[in-house]
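Repro:
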Amino acid sequence: LLGNVIAGRIANRLNLGGTNCTVDAACASSLSAMKMAISDLLEYRSDMMIAGGVDADNSPMMYLCFSKTPAFTKGENPRPFDEDSGGVMIGEGLGMVVLKRLEDAERDGDRIYAVVKGIGTSSDGKFKSIYAPRSGGQAKALRRAYEDANVEPLCIGMLEAHGTGTAAGDVAEFEGLKEVFTEKKPEKSCYPDYQHIALGSIKSQIGHTKAAAGIAGLIKTALALHHKILPPSINIDRPSKKLGIENTPFYLNTEPRPWITDGEPRRAGVSAFGFGGTNFHYVLEEFQDVHSGPFR
């Protein structure tokens, strides 16, 4: 009943003296919490922040509520962006990241898995329902993230989507992606092939962890950048025809493969969208000793 006890107990046990709170942005909660933590760092109110999300279904209420919607899959596996995707499969999870200003992490000799290059947020505004995903609202968050990062959208090599596996959600999200990634010819090309962005969703592997979903995708992406490997999504046989993916810079990555670039830093996008029309998108970049520009 007291959600703040989660953050409070961490601060209590680790003897932390900075901001301590919980955030509710539905399925985007963990990336919302991370944005608040980054703001504290940029304002020099703290020197280190721990942020993330946890979701455990300790009662049947969540299942009862979701069962009253058409969101649940009738199959055995979630299949985001697949022709046979049938809906969401609920998961449980916990993920946390330690955040520091880049210069401080370098000075302290910390292991740096990735750096945050840019953040974009938006609200869907007035729409047919607060539960209905709006591609235009999601696209707004993506544009703001790449503008904040000063990075061309087509200069990423991986996009970790929200990718719930519902027909309406996947189509709306992909429409938003197409709106941003195909709206204009880029000023520069970072990859020789047009269809070069590995699109995936960790929900194909662990289900939809709701409040922890965003941080799960972000951790997956940070590890991909660190190890220079494009990780696969599973349970995908063929892209949904409704996407029209063959005419976009995206492909569904179904096997691990080396992340090869032409000398540009490896970059990736991470999305999390929540009920109520709250949208978050992060642009991450691999850590290099020589920086490509300012970071968050």
